[in-house]
């Protein structure tokens, strides 16, 4: 009988430990701006400058820019775990574009939001990106 009680306690403790260790569904970021045409923004120099100034605390933010600014540190550090599928796709497109087409802007943004190069290292480790994108040592080692 004593062994059964000990076993039950052990099993209960193990189950409790296991359920607390498993990742829980995190709440997703606000999706009200998911339908913004990201490609149109990337092609528009005026809009790109405005968003970058917002991110760098050098200018005002639109409501969607403020949401991006508030979410960006967590999204970079946690591999966009709270992003919707549309946000993941859009953020990958934006980051790839900025790293490739606007490396000076990426360097400034990365100093503030990705100082340990968490995102850039992951980006450059992906085999498909090594051939298609600029994964230079200069970008990683600051």
TrEMBL record:
Signal peptide range in chain numbering: 1-21
Pfam families: OS-D (PF03392)
Keyword vocabulary terms for this entry: Signal
UniProt keyword Protease, yes or no: no
Coiled-coil residue spans: none
Source species, domain of life: Eukaryota
UniProt name for this protein: CSON007981 protein
Gene behind this protein: CSON007981
């Amino acid at each position: 009988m004593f062994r059964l009680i000990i076993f039950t306690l052990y099993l209960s403790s193990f189950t409790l430990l296991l359920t607390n260790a498993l990742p829980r569904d995190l709440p997703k970021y606000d999706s009200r701006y998911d339908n913004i045409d990201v490609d149109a923004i990337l092609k528009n120099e005026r809009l790109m400058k405005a968003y970058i100034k917002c991110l760098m605390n050098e200018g005002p933010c639109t409501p969607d820019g403020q949401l991006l600014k508030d979410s960006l540190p967590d999204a970079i550090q946690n591999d966009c775990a709270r992003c919707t599928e549309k946000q993941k796709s859009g953020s990958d497109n934006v980051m790839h574009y900025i790293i490739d087409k606007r490396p000076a802007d990426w360097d400034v943004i990365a100093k503030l939001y990705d100082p340990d190069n968490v995102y850039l290292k992951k980006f450059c480790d992906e085999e498909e990106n090594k051939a298609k994108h600029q994964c230079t040592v200069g970008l990683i080692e600051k």
